[in-house]
Amino acid sequence: LASLIFQLRAQNQVLKKGVVDEQANSASLKEQVKMKDQSLRKLQQEMDSLTFRNQQLAKRVELLQDELALSETRGKKNKKSAESSSQLSQEQKSVFNEDLQKKIEENERLHILYFEADEQHKRLEAELRTRLQVLETDAAQHQAVVDGLTRKYTDTIEKLQNDKAKLEIKSQTLEREAKDCRLRTEECQQQLKNLQAALGSRLEESLCIINEKVPFNDTRSNRYNALNVPLHNRRYQLKLRDLAGQALAFVQELVTALLNFHTYTEQKVQIFPIDSATDTISPLNQKFSQYLHENASYVRPLEEGMLHLFESITEDTVTVLETAVKLKAFSEHLASYLCFLRKILPYQLKSLEEECESSLCTAALRARNMELQRDMKRLTAVFEKLHTYISLLALPSTKPEGLLRTNYNFVFTNIAASLHGFHDILQDISKHYSQKATLEQDVPTATQKLITTNDCILSSLVALTNGAGKIASFFSNNLDHFTSSLSYGPKAGTEFISPLSAECMLQYKKKAVAYMKSLKKPCADSVPYEEALANRRVLLSSTESREGLAQQVQQSLEKIAKLEQEKEHWMLEAQLAKIKLEKENQKLKNSLSGHLTETIQERSVLPNVAEQKKEMTEKSPREPIKSTSLAPDVDCREDLIKNHYMARIAELTSHLQLADSKSVHFHAECRALAKRLSLAEKSKESLTEELKLASQNITRLQDELMTTKRSYEDQLSMMSDHLCSMNETLTKQREEIDTLKMTSK
């Protein structure tokens, strides 16, 4: 605000000075205008007097001319008299003529002066009027600026007065806050002294305990530091898995295109320059075709190796070059495919030379074949480069001394360059082969099968070129990510970690993950302490423990099975007895039915008796006729035997149950005593573990004490810095308030 007021005042002074200067200039110009008006009036008066004098002279000239005319007329009449007076009139005429000539010259001079004075006056008047208009417009503009500045200054003055009042209030509040801060700083200093004293004593104790208890610091040794588990970056793992999935898709496209290219090349060798269907092809092309037929066994493993590498990259693991073991298998598959390319390269070159030597080959076709020979050599060289660099990337998982971390960026950059070179070579092959195919179509012996095969080869080359371009651009776009993230090293680690230490680190990581998962399990609802003690006493003193009850249930099930077997036995016995009883009853029924038939035959005379006999015969098989003497005795004997055996079985089962219950009781007591003993041993072990945890907690608290001490020291330093900054701001605000007071005064 003070600087703004100072700037406004300086501008106001400059504007005031400019306005005063303009007013002075306008006043001087007004004086000049007045003086010019006065001189103009004088010149006007002189002009008027000259015009009046001129008129008088003109009248006098006219009179003289009239007199001259009269004298001439008179002279004609009286020449004689005129001759005498001619001398006198001639003298007068000469005098008049001289006088007239002077007057005419004077009149001309006055006319010239008047015209010049009039022109100068008009020009000066026009200049003064234009200057007056300019000055009036400037004055109006300056007046508008002055009015605007006055309004602005009044507004700023009012605003500054309000700000001054606010700043006064704020300064008062800041003074109060400063007093509070001084009191707080005194309290904090006192607390700091107390804390320093307390933390100093604790620090000595902690240092003594650390020196006595802590055996070593694993971060000091690179061998042990390499085993520390790094921080898990889930986003990085997901990103890397996504990149591996994209690379797998690109490799699958390349594998499909390579399979098609080798297969269609095999078909081409079979039909050009000699068709195997009509004639025998050369032994060279036969061998070449045989090798090309084996391309799937070399190309397919590339896709499988990349798939295994993708499956090894999961969300839970740490994916770096030291842990990427599957990269070695992919490198081996690429080496086998490279051997395949080296094996078929001389046959391919010789096959192209054989095409050139045939009578159907033209000069242009021979040139295309030579270009394809160079392209195939370059293609094999590019695959050799790729295999070299990928085998270098596989070294950290097997031989860590083979590749240093500083060379990671170099290897990845060269892989990207090799992929771009691979794409360029495929573009050249596609272009040269398309030219070769167009030339082969013009051959007189070209068949539809040859044209179709050439089209298939061109389509496979286009797919191969597109796939190579995609994977090259993909690798170049993610080159920074590969070079920055695939170099794992623990904190304060300087040496390269070995694959064995990386494997141990992954095992430790799995254990840590399992431990964290176990910590994340929800805790069961806790039981009050007193109720838990009561339940524990009941559990320890009760004979109906879970295992005892399970054993009792098992024994009861065995008893039920035995009883079921006995029941089935007695059911069989009862069925046998029932069958015997039915046989005895059948015998009695047969004897009684024979006796009744004899009596009925004797009385068969009467029809009514016959009908009754018929009814009795119909009822006889349905309702057995009871014997009056034997049946009751048999039933009574069976009931007595049955009741006797049932009572005996009940008595024996009761004795057996009593014995079983006593044995179970004694067994449960024995198990309860054994359980008490095991619980006592477990409680002893838990107490020892708690003792160890308590000692560990003591060390942890001592470490926390050190950290809290450092944090308190940092906080106190920050508070002191904050107080210093507040004091500086207060002094600055006081200075501003003083300046505002001075400016307001």
TrEMBL record:
<keyword id="KW-0175">Coiled coil</keyword>
<feature type="coiled-coil region">
    <location>
        <begin position="670"/>
        <end position="711"/>
    </location>
</feature>
<dbReference type="Pfam" id="PF10205">
    <property type="entry name" value="KLRAQ"/>
</dbReference>
<feature type="compositionally biased region" description="Low complexity">
    <location>
        <begin position="83"/>
        <end position="92"/>
    </location>
</feature>
<keyword id="KW-0694">RNA-binding</keyword>
<dbReference type="Pfam" id="PF21636">
    <property type="entry name" value="PPP1R21_C"/>
</dbReference>
<feature type="region of interest" description="Disordered">
    <location>
        <begin position="73"/>
        <end position="92"/>
    </location>
</feature>
<protein>
    <recommendedName>
        <fullName>Protein phosphatase 1 regulatory subunit 21</fullName>
    </recommendedName>
</protein>
<feature type="coiled-coil region">
    <location>
        <begin position="132"/>
        <end position="198"/>
    </location>
</feature>
<keyword id="KW-0967">Endosome</keyword>
<dbReference type="GO" id="GO:0016020">
    <property type="term" value="C:membrane"/>
</dbReference>
<dbReference type="InterPro" id="IPR049372">
    <property type="entry name" value="PPP1R21_C"/>
</dbReference>
<dbReference type="GO" id="GO:0003723">
    <property type="term" value="F:RNA binding"/>
</dbReference>
<feature type="region of interest" description="Disordered">
    <location>
        <begin position="603"/>
        <end position="629"/>
    </location>
</feature>
<dbReference type="GO" id="GO:0005769">
    <property type="term" value="C:early endosome"/>
</dbReference>
<feature type="domain" description="Protein phosphatase 1 regulatory subunit 21 N-terminal">
    <location>
        <begin position="3"/>
        <end position="100"/>
    </location>
</feature>
<feature type="compositionally biased region" description="Basic and acidic residues">
    <location>
        <begin position="611"/>
        <end position="625"/>
    </location>
</feature>
<dbReference type="InterPro" id="IPR040024">
    <property type="entry name" value="PPP1R21"/>
</dbReference>
<dbReference type="InterPro" id="IPR019343">
    <property type="entry name" value="PPP1R21_N"/>
</dbReference>
<dbReference type="Pfam" id="PF10212">
    <property type="entry name" value="PPP1R21_helical"/>
</dbReference>
<feature type="coiled-coil region">
    <location>
        <begin position="546"/>
        <end position="598"/>
    </location>
</feature>
<dbReference type="InterPro" id="IPR019348">
    <property type="entry name" value="PPP1R21_six_helix"/>
</dbReference>
